[in-house]
Amino acid sequence: MKDDVLYMALITWHSITTPQDPLLPSALHLYESTFEEIVREPLDVLLRGLQLGDTIRPSAFHLLIAHDEHQRVVALTIANYLSRANRGFIVYLAVDPAARSQGLGAQLIQQLELLLQRDAQLAGHAQLDGLVLETEDDSDFERRRRFFHQQGFAQVPNIRYHQPALNPTTEVIPLHLFVKGSPGDIPTLIRAIYEEKYHLINSIPLDVLRALEARNR
Question: Is the pLDDT score of 6 beyond 50?
Answer without folding.
Answer: no
